[in-house]
Write a structure and sequence with these properties.
The protein is an alpha+beta fold. The chain has helices at 2-21, 38-46; strands at residues 67-72, 78-83, 87-92, 97-102, 110-112, 118-122, 125-129, 136-139.
């Protein structure tokens, strides 16, 4: 008997709270009653819904966009890295160009050249490893 009364006393307040949250006329309550800023309204009116584009990012696919970034490598100068999708083209401060292929082919951070040189891209840093010399950390 005491268990039933405890159950009724604990469930009844919950039902009252839920009933208070549900609108009585069946219309949903507005979550945000503040109207959008005028600048947002004019932009939304200027772009029709059919012209909106959806951006999807797939981190498992190799990069397909071509872009160039410049890195500073301490006192040894700078390098420019051009992303060619599944490979990189690295131009040194002396103008020498070297091609690096993704190693393994399905990723976009480790690259190796035919000369056994390698480069690892990690965010804004690039670790450049040349055969016979100390690895260099280059920063954007």
């Amino acid at each position: 008997m005491a268990l039933r009364r405890t159950f009724r006393m604990s469930v009844f307040p919950l039902l009252v709270i839920v009933a208070a949250c549900v609108p009585q006329d069946g219309a949903p309550k507005a979550a945000n009653t503040v109207p959008p800023a005028p600048a947002q309204q004019s932009i939304a009116a200027a772009v029709p819904p059919a012209a909106a584009t959806k951006i999807t990012t797939d981190l498992t696919a190799p990069r397909s966009s071509i872009g160039t970034a410049t890195y500073r490598c301490g006192n040894n100068g700078m390098i420019a890295i051009q992303n060619l999708g599944t490979s990189l083209r690295v131009v040194g401060s002396d103008g020498a160009t070297e091609e690096f292929a993704a190693s393994p082919a399905n990723q976009s951070s480790r690259y190796q050249a035919a000369t056994h040189d390698a480069i690892v891209i990690d965010g804004r840093e690039a670790l450049l490893m040349k055969k016979g010399s100390t690895p260099q950390t280059c920063k954007r």
